[in-house]
Amino acid sequence: MKNRAKPAALLAAVLTVVFLCSFATTAEKSYTFEEIGVSVSLPAELRALRYPVEEGDPFIPLTGWNSASDLNQYYKEMGILLHAYFPDTGASITVENWSDEESMFLETFAAQSEERLLARIADYPQDWGGRRMTASLENCGGQPFLLHTTESEEGVVLRYYETVLGGCWFSLRLYSSADGSPLLEEELAVLDNAMDTLSLPQGDPVEGLLPQSWQEIASIAAVYLGLVLFLLVLIFLARSVRRSRPAPPVLPGFVCRVSTPVGYADIYRDYLVVFPAGRQPLSFWHAQTGGVAETEDCFWVYPPNLPPLPLPKDGFAAGSPERLHELLPEINGQAERGAVS
Fold this sequence. Notes:
single chain
């Protein structure tokens, strides 16, 4: 019985060691990029350089640069947020984020139709320099990505996923080693696993919580602009109708017509008529009024039981201030006789 127990215990110990070793080799580290609200998980064994790289980082020589400042300048220009090397082969994986005129125009791939996205890769596959390049449309977490693959005769040497998030290009790229050796299946699996663990920003346009695409914003702006133009046209038409309102007819004995703050005022030899806007005309015999007084800029008429009415000298639509000035003695004489009687 004891002899049987020993092999079982040994087998259990071996399985435990294998499990622990496999767990150690598959341990992952999560990287969060607060500036873009994205997180992704990669194997913990990768030699990772995260922008900005600190001076003295032991992995700087892997990049071919000698100092952190030069490397950071390169990473900034290329939009590289993370550069991680596989320890055994020299292959590397990057997290890249940058913007250009096209990405800002697109805002996000999520706003593009499937037809438009497929049109971007309509000319694939391509053959260039002895390598074959293919592309396909993939969906990861509700966000469309374009998957690009470059193969040599030996195998895949480059594979990357790319999309547009918030007006910026975002991509995960897997590069072969500097000598161009094909990527291993395990390395390709790391890229696929990274895409599976990719967490996009909360409220990204994919979820409909961030600002709308530029097409939607332009559409809303066009609606408001159309409404404003419609109101302006209405105001213009209303003013045009008001300006084109036919002038009142004149009768015998007409002297002048003056534009006043309340409307037209027609002066006749024996009476005056006021045409208030939107109201019935009012007429008064000069004998009923307090007469007409002249100042430097206007004449003042004093209708009974009403405030004095100014007749600006620059508001004469017919007749002239001189003609009215000549008739003042006659008009005021009628007013005085009316007051006496």
